[in-house]
Amino acid sequence: MKYKSDIEIAQEASLVHIKEIAAKINVKEDDLELFGKYKAKLPLDLIDEEKVKKNNLVLVTAITPTPAGEGKTTVSIGLTEGLNRIGEKATVVLREPSLGPVFGIKGGAAGGGYSQVVPMEDINLHFTGDFNAVEKANNLLSALIDNNLQASDNLNLDPRTIFWKRVIDMNDRSLRQITIGLGGTANGVPREDGFNITPASEVMAILCMATGFDDLKKRLGDIFVGFTYDKKPVFARDLKAENAMAILLKDAIKPNLVQTLEQNPAIIHGGPFANIAQGTNTILATKMGLSLSDYVVTEAGFGADLGAEKFLNIKCAASGLNPKAVVLVATIRALRHHGGAPKDHVNEPNTSLVSKGLTNLEKHIENVRKFRIQPVVAINSFVNDTEEEINLVIEACDKMGVKAVVSDGWAKGGEGTSQLASVVKETVENADSKFQPLYNWKSPVKEKIETIAREIYGATSVSYDKKAKLNLKRIERLGFNDFAVCMAKTQKSFSDVENLIGRPEDFEITVREIEIAAGAGFIIPILGKMMRMPGLPTRPASENMSIDAKGVISGLS
Questions:
Q1: Which of 103-107, 116-120, 550-554 is predicted with the least confidence, judged by mean pLDDT?
Q2: Does residue 41 have an active-site annotation?
Q3: Which of 39, 64, 66, 72 is catalytic?
Q4: Is the pTM of this model over 0.70?
Q5: How far is 49 from 232, CA to CA, in rounded Å?
Q6: Which of the residues 106, 166, 356, 363 is marked catalytic?
Q7: Which residue ranges form the domains of the chain, and what is each CATH number?
């Protein structure tokens, strides 16, 4: 049986004018800043903190994923369709896709099948220009730094200590480490530099953590740049950069409104990765959704040990958001993988391997409960799943006191997620405990790191390389002890070794170094070799894309 591609389904959809979507959430047409007929920005004054506190926030996360991903975005969109089908007023709030994965190996991030946000091509490509604005603000600071090195009345900044890198929203390994300023005195001061991908920019992290425009400006000014020759810290505010950077972000700070295939509201804003950043959409977008709907369904990147941990310990702790339920997405394919299935056999039915792989799901369930939230397991349906394998998962979850439901949003949209929606609604209405972060931001840095490593990953101990120990002393000296912790770690394992699948035991976490994101308000312990600038695969997804004379795109998934 031949299935339609995501882009074919999206292009066949009947879209309504975005003003009709806005009307469903009581937003007046005059309040919309239109980007054509199907996209609009929402003004920040629509946020109502009382409604934010009252309405229901549901987080969608996942077990430790396979390289193909397990469909969190698809489930998030499908669950929103399902909630609206059972009579609830629900909005999905998501991150914006990065062009790097779109043209690289993963493809787009607008959902899949009959659980998509549209216009799919626009969302996956330039959208409303937010990524471009983040990139330009980041690179403006880079230009100001290098200009100051050249100036006669400079800040005495030591170029060997500059931590700030340029960014571009593309996978380009050749830009990871470069030399700039060559060609004589007129072309700047020669020094080593490099590029990160735009989702890894601290400006992206700041955009996602900001609670308003004034807060955005302050955070931009707080960006830590490096040290002077006499060891004094230099911040973006010392370069008088924050106002100009904020000007570039004046529209990007506003959340974007689009629609689902079933013409329900979707807000898409911000796009940090979860393995190297906080992996969640903006605080402002989530609060916007909660101000305009009774239910907000949102997602956090990769497995729950990354995106969900950061969503709960960083985003919610900083903003006062109170999630009522967590949906853990599991696939039979991923459970086979964690049971030991070879890469080329994960799509073959095998109850024995699924049974072994359940240890990974069980650990994620335990972790969610540590935040005093009851999880619901969504078994994201694939055509090669067997009834025996599905029942095995449902029975295992039942023994843990957790409801597991098959989610068929890819094939059936809201019709295929109505049962999941009913279970989530029941879980929210019966929630009898309040969300609680796992650690206090004011705890010592090492205590916060070790709490995450032991409680979430299951590590027995944490070791610190020489560079990490020096970084801890720097954090102490700069007075950044009260920051949150944003771990940079492989998404393929609970541990920092990607081939330790399932539920590893008796392992040690090694912190290689610790970066500072002072504007975002967190420090970044780096576990293993984490790439901030991905490379393209041998056969990039871009090779399969085309566009005809009428502007119709194909091959974008």
A1: 103-107
A2: no
A3: 72
A4: yes
A5: 40
A6: 106
A7: 6-128+252-429 (3.40.50.300), 130-248 (3.30.1510.10), 445-527 (3.10.410.10)
